[in-house]
Amino acid sequence: MPTVFEISGRMAMFRKPYTTTSSISYPFPPPSALAGMIAAILGYTHGAEDKGWNALYWEKMKGTQVALRIMNPVSWHSETINFWNVKEPQKNPHIQVKHQFLREPRYRVFVKGPLEEELDSFLSKGCFLYTPYLGVAYALCDVKYLGRFKEEGCIPPVKVNTVIPFEDGLKVDVLGSGGVFRELVPFSMDEENCNRRKGRCGNCKVWRGCGRLVPFLVI
Predict the structure, then answer these.
(1) What does pTM read for this prediction?
(2) Cβ contact 30:186 at 8 Å
(3) Which of 53, 128, 197, 201 has the least CB density, counted as fewest CB within 10 Å?
């Protein structure tokens, strides 16, 4: 039976990796971020002590299925954050970078597969090994355990409340749903956070953690 829990916080920022001078967020945690959160709760190491871009926990995620529902309306706010100027500190020791944050986000997460029982044992006791957060370390995450629920079969067409991958053959009743938007998000990685798209490593020496990109629909 899938394990279900909710994650929430005062703010979140799941940065789009192609943004540079301004940091723009996805409206929901992509699968790669959810995998990192589950690994943090279970205490799986990412191996960053050897290589900063490692994601060794990714191997343990094989066979795990995750669904995500957006519970609160998506609300944005922007802030300017001071950083050290590591490139040209002689000109100015600080730089200011605009950040886009999600305000008061809340999501419901459904986890099915090899990790669901181990995850349930942690969540039902209200404990975790590494601190979960919502995209950035200063956006701490509250985790609320909801329980385990039996799956039920369905016959299309069906109403879907979760974010879904946009695949060939998928038909969406746009008028009946009240609106749909689409995001291209990181879907999967290897153990070195490398992009494996179309059978090749995509510019990984420059752009670590980009992942395989897949379009998702939010209804």
Answers:
(1) 0.83
(2) yes
(3) 201
